[in-house]
Sequence to fold (232 residues):
Amino acid sequence: MMNLKYSATSSVLALCALCLSACQHAPTVNEQAKQTRWINPDVFDASKHTDGSSYSFEFDMTFTAVNGENVTVTNCLELALFGEDRVSAPEYIYWQSIKIDCEVVERFYLSSENAVSFWPKSFDYELIKQFPATAIPHLGGQALDGRTGTLSAYDTSLKFVEKKNDNQIHVEVDNMDVYYVQVARADFNRDGIQDIFVRMDWYVKDAFGKGIDWVVLTKLSPDAAPMVLWRK
Fold:
């Protein structure tokens, strides 16, 4: 009887030790391989980055103001001080694209240099389909609140057009042409997990509407669905 009791106790202890060992050796976020932050070289010229801040991002942008004056700005601070209300309508998309560039640079340099990534290496149509339904250009009064689930499940009209390059996917959705551009990967909210900054260049078919939007997405585990962190 004593031997049986001892045997049962030993078995329970061994099982507990095995479970404890498994838990101790299960990979955690901190133990997994980390990825270095990355910014799309096709979007950003590395020579324009000087001291690693958004205000050091240099460019040469000349556009027409509402009063007809030609205006040149050379960095993000000058762009912000000029003001959106002074930009002429024909130049607005151009001005907005540089503004988004400055937004990316600011968030990129404030991000963690290394983080665990649960994103697939490839930026492709299969990944776009798994984006949340709200990861679509916001067209003025069009509400995003009621959009739930994945982009492909909510928008059955979603259609692949072409893969422009490794970081740009062209799709059709809701009578729009949308170019999803992977601009940067970094831990933008500094939670130890890598996020993706995606720019959305769009225009409405058979109409004159066009614009640029952006969204920052995160993925908290290998099996988790992508979620929106921020958007324009």
